[in-house]
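Example record used in the benchmark description.
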Amino acid sequence: MSHSPSIPDRPDLDLDSSMSEAERLDALRRHLARIVEVNGELEERLAETRARQDDLREEVEHLTRENETLKTSSEYVATVQERSADGVIVKQHGNNQEVLTEVGEDLAEELEPGDRVAVNDSFSVQKTLDDETDVRAQAMQIDRSPSVTYEDVGGLEEQIQDVREAVEIPLETPERFATVGIEPPAGVLLHGPPGTGKTMLAKAVANRTDATFIKMAGSELVHKFIGEGARLVRDLFQLAEDHEPSIIFIDEIDAIASKRTDSKTSGDAEVQRTMMQLLSNMDGFEERGDIRIIAATNRFDMLDEAILRPGRFDRLIEVPKPTEEAREAIFAIHTRGMNVEDGVDFAKLARETPDASGADVKAICTEAGMFAIRDERDEVTMADFLSAKEKLSHATGDDEVSKTFA
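Model output (structure tokens):
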């Protein structure tokens, strides 16, 4: 426990009748100097005490506010569903309970269906809240353009042209469509086996344009609680509108757009509800010039017919496994930054990997580089590519890929 410093003693004036005038004057001077010194010390103590008093006053005010907050009942977030003569109908978030409640005259004129409000335990509307998109939707926004370019996508010249016409050109020169008198394609669906470059195509478009790139996987839209997936879809499209021009890329769209069945489970019903919200948002764009949609799937056969009809995805672009010529180009792309010896024959590598996808080719190149590092060499040789192909073929167990080089 700290103690306050003691107050300096009051100085006494020590005068004697036997003192001469000079001695008395000197004693008075010493007494005055001591009084000035004590006064300075007291002024310092007073300043410290006042500062301490201010700190304690602020602490009391802070504790008082905290005490008032703790005594105040929590408020709940709800959404205005409908206005009526008897009040407003609000739906509380979390339990989806709808309640008809009264609202003060000062708020009655401001509220509109869809507004977020705070309600108390009696469901009385206390105040309006700002619109807020789902934080998961905000996290999916990519501010900077991806580093992938069209030059990084090998063997897909026709698919690149189709995607550019449907996404890039409407964003950069929409007047070309207006001059011809047609609407640009509403959306692009890329389908094909895994590892063939569907995601790279979408990233290359985002790199070429100045659009905000928003990427999400279909599986991320599947949630446990009723309405969560649909709300996330709404927030994503709202995010796209707030940051237009923008590109929405939905990977693994088969996770939420598979063919509908007669299943009555709550999980299947929630997935279908999310898909209905996605279809509604895709149909809801009045002007598509500044917002483009790209989706990708490797299970085209699973998609519901509703998602494939014209007006939603007008262009269905197949991205097949690369041809021999395309594989040669992909080998060249993935070895541009590698120190490869002159004897490496990309044409031969392409011939001997008939079922390899673009991702398989990249894996072979990476593994070949690892063999060179293991042997402490600066160059990657043809033998490294042979060994990498053999290693990966044994790892996958694919009979076609496991064919040895001629």
